[in-house]
Amino acid sequence: MDSPQLSLKELRRVVVAAAAGNVIEWYDFYIFGSLAAILSVQFFEKRHPVAALLSTIALFSVGFLIRPLGAFLFGWLGDLVGRKYTFLITLGGMGLSTALIGVIPTYAQIGLSAAFILFFLRLIQGLCLGGEYGGAITYVAEHVSDEKRGYYTGWLQTSPTLGIVVSLAVIRTWMGTEAFSRWGWRIPFLLSAVLVGIAIYIRLQLQETPIFQAIKAKGQTAVNPWREAFLSSNLKYVLIASIVVIGEGCVWYSSQFWALYFLQTVKKVDVLTSSLIVGAGLLIGTPTLVLFGWLSDKIGRKPIILGGFLLAALTYYPLYMALGRFAEPGGINYPMAVLVVAILVSYVGMVYGPIAAFLAEFFPARIRYTSVSVPYHIGNGWGGGLVPIITTSVFVRTGSVGSALIYPIAVPAVAFLLCLFLMRETRTMSIWKPEPPEGAFATPRHA
């Protein structure tokens, strides 16, 4: 089939609807991490603040580790019944679990039971996010032409970063530090119920993707998406994609989220000030996601992603040393600290901006939701999600920022070397041509 000739207004509607839901889901997911320092004293024993903080970060990481299971479950559902209704289910589950975190009694009220309830709700968050993002990538990719897929999915890629910005903005603007630490921290979680209601309403107006409608009408949907994705020649491509996304995920969380943890844990900058610095840097750097998505349509996905891996591995140490100098408590150089964070975010733009287009082009439509979701959440959930707990734990144990940065530097360096030989360029692949009976690649597009 040919790509649909959607008007610019219709394309914007598709991207905005998908991205709006993603922003809210990522807001829900990251409000937990943004408030880690406060949650640690609400849900764990205050007499051991370091252990409490590490326990909270561990709970934050649990949400990442469970994400591939959500990808397996909801990817299977998305390839069987469709993209639209599956990511409506995940959006609702994420909103409900996040809102409930806002009403959990604290450790002082019910003891350790508070932490167990928080753990359960964090698992639900991770499961739902595991099914959300692969669906959103697939949904947008299956609406746009081959020549502009990087550009339009690049807009979608801004949603996680904007979700963090929203979470930081809510924290920053709500109230003073003392009141926020005492009870105001609940409000950002409760706000999720309102935001999710709006996002569900927007998404209900959407139609199923043209590609899924076409393969469903022809009776070509997968009978068993798991078997076709993981017990066939497609497994090789899932493994290659996982390596690419592990490197991307590590850069994503090392550049964005550990910058926040670094300011709070290493430099002892308060929650509101660190949120301002990181939030401003994120806003300045976010357009690079669209820029590099667009550029990948011109020169390819592979050179841009590999360039981001290499720059991250070579410059993380000097950039974090500089951020430390500019963020000394009592003498913070706000413009320079924000600039360093913006540079870090530009690396995210390089590795993350083109990744949605790459994944959508890498797999056939009948198993695209499953095949995109699983490597995406293995890479980002494990490769990236472990960054906060590993880096913070190493720093607490050694007191050395250099030691804490070994993992964020080593992973993209190894990913660069492996992907140099394993990763295939997908820019010239068309997802609109009839799929070959074997193999995970679409038909080459003729210039």
Descriptive notes:
The protein has 447 residues and is mostly helical. It has a single domain (8-444), classed as Up-down Bundle (Growth Hormone, Chain: A). The chain contains 22 helices and 2 strands. The protein has helices spanning 8-34, 36-43, 49-65, 67-81, 83-101, 107-110, 113-141, 149-174, 177-184, 186-204, 210-217, 225-230, 234-266, 271-285, 287-299, 301-326, 334-352, 355-362, 368-384, 387-398, 401-404, 406-422; strands at residues 429-430, 443-444. A two-stranded antiparallel ribbon has the order 1-2. The chain is globular and about 65 Å long. Mean pLDDT is 86; it is low at 437-447. One of its GO terms (cellular component) is plasma membrane. Pfam families: MFS_1. InterPro entries: MFS, MFS_dom, MFS_trans_sf, Sugar_transporter_CS.
